[in-house]
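Minimal example, chain plus S-adenosylmethionine.
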Amino acid sequence: MRDAGRVLPRNDPRQYDDLADEWWRPDGVFAMLHWLARARAALVPPATRPGALLVDLGCGAGLLATHLAGKGYRHVGVDLTRSALAQAAAHGVTAVNGDATAVPLVDGCADVVAAGELLEHVPDWRAAVAEACRLLRPGGLLVLDTLNDTALARLVAVRVAERLPTVPRGIHDPRLFVDDRELVAECARHGVDLRVRGVRPAVPGLLRWLFRQATGAATPAGQAPRIVPTGSRAVLYQGHGVRGG
Ligand SMILES: C[S@@+](CC[C@H](N)C(=O)[O-])C[C@H]1O[C@@H](n2cnc3c(N)ncnc32)[C@H](O)[C@@H]1O
């Protein structure tokens, strides 16, 4: 990724400023984030009380917002990147500029905490997990997805995916990928019983999407690839778990 003629290091957050116009393009370089946001939102049940709060750590441009519509949450998004937060705010998210490892919100304020494609970007992912769990009220729900710390994930998500139009080049630093067993253990230490499962784009939909990309055709409404469960957590995985009392 280039910035005024310089090559930015892997995972440099300034890349999100360079790519600010891409967030809400359904066929742009963040297309897969749209697919993942839909799958993540499917794990979030409708709110059970008026005024329920969903805190979206590393919310980016608020792609989760459209998929939460009608579920009854106030959607608060926390992110380092101001250009992304401005877009999140335009989509109804209450934007908080801040670090997911030191969130300026009180303990137990959240009915749901979401951390979509965040942990693999945070040098101290354990601190972000601690914050996510701290923000949850007892009985609150943590939902997340991230990339596993495996050779296969480094191959698929970096070497292969960064050559396809689904992932921006240099956006990931594979040294930050998150081992699924360590994540489960860390959540347990903070009172959240996290269940994880592997996910991936459904192959026929992905192939159709790549073909349309190659031919310059736009994706018709409702025909974006679906994210589906898969038997292996070795690349991409989702987690959800409830904070104990
Ligand atoms: C891959 S994007 C995912 C955005 C969003 N969750 C989604 O799925 O569309 C990662 C986001 O995390 C943000 N980010 C990275 N490190 C962060 C940190 N330590 N605290 C808060 N946000 C962070 C970036 O600015 C970026 O918006």
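Residues 69 and 165 are 28 Å apart (CA to CA). The first strand starts at residue 2 and ends at 3.
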